[in-house]
Amino acid sequence: MEMGRREFLEKSGKYIMLFGAATKAWDFILAGTPEEAPGYDVTRHWWAFYIDIEKCIGCGNCVRACKAENNVLREPFYFRTWVERYHIPPPDLANLSEDRLPIVDSPNGGYDGFPERYRDGDGSKSFFVPKMCNHCTDSPCTQVCPVGATFDSPDGVVLVDKTYCLGCRYCVQACPYGCRYIDPRVQTVDKCTLCYHRITKGLTTACCETCPTGARLLGDLKDPNDPLHELLRTQKVQVLKPYLATGAKLVYHGLDGAVR
Amino acid sequence: MRELLRDAEHLFRLAGVFAALLIVFLVARAIFTPEGFGVYGHYRAGALEEVRAREINYAGRDACLDCHDDIATVKKKAQHAGIGCEGCHGPLQAHVADPSTVVPQKPDAKFLCLVCHRENLAKPRNFPQINPKEHADDDHCIRCHDPHAPLPLKE
After folding, report:
1. Per-residue pLDDT reduced to its tens digit, A136-148
2. Smallest CA–CA separation between B11 and chain A, in Å?
3. CB contacts, 8 Å: B84 with chain A
4. Measuring CA to CA, which residue among B145, B21, B62 is closest to residue A203?
5. CA A234 from centroid of its chain's CA atoms
6. Are A57 and B116 in contact (CB under 8 A)?
7. Gap from B26 CA to chain A (nearest CA, Å)
8. What is the pTM of this model?
9. Measuring CA to CA, which residue among A178, A228, A218 is closest to residue A198?
10. Cβ–Cβ below 8 Å for B58 and A200
């Protein structure tokens, strides 16, 4: 049988691709049906989070609750959630073309609240921005993990398999939101789990539980009656760094363009 | 056919080497791949259960209401109705599990009141804020206010 080069490449390419698909299919056949946790079906939830910046008073209740709930080290620099204060100085009327860079501070992550640093009436603007893992749908941290220790759970939470993590810090660098740190006690990475141990048992997260103004809200997007749907429909919302197309599931209401 | 197979011995040897390598690969894969890997994706399915197994410290406000319905009544129509009990009283799952032996500490009222209500430019304008020096000469907030229902003032 005569076969030209073009035809050969076409056919072999097709077979190589089909073989890949067949192996993938075989993997699924071998895997069987996923085991279900008792009383909690991972396929019936899709968790998301809503933060209303206009309600945040920077009290640090979320930071304290998160550390207490998840046994996070009390020292600064170890945070699963923290609060930042943005201060945008007034415009220099003689030099309006110059950018007004925001001054950002977060004393101890907001654990002890925020001492007043600025004075009223100079035309500046200040506000608090709570930060935490964005639980991205296409998370950069999951993509770079060399061993499959960081993963997107079937219900949309980015989690870490601590027994599998090497502590290579690749994900710490990859996270565009700075939401990961190495826990020095075990030398593995640690991050917000969206209180997975709570939300899978019908409770809300520790930060939502203790937020006094209701600035934080956990929502399950697969539940059609979840109040989050109403908020997403009626409010103007934004995610952090939308140009990175991470598919963040943490949405902010009242997010200022200065926030990074 | 005979022509083809005449000097084919080295090809069979090569095929044998490939077959042996394939077996080594499959055995190694079976040994080193942890249980449950690949069930949901490129990770160990058991990790989900391990993350889920962590103990709860904050019981949630519904657990408090089971016993403390008197406080709930006071709080229900007050300004602080929306605040979870453990927002001020701290994590109390241990108290819920064993109410008689684990007795919660009184919260540090002054710190907690002021961490929210001390005036700060970055707080939303409509949020009630005070300067503790001007407002009450640095006195204890709970001398006049009931923390569960701060206004109207105590008798």
Report:
1. 999 999 999 999 8
2. 22
3. 209-212
4. B62
5. 23
6. yes
7. 14
8. 0.84
9. A218
10. no
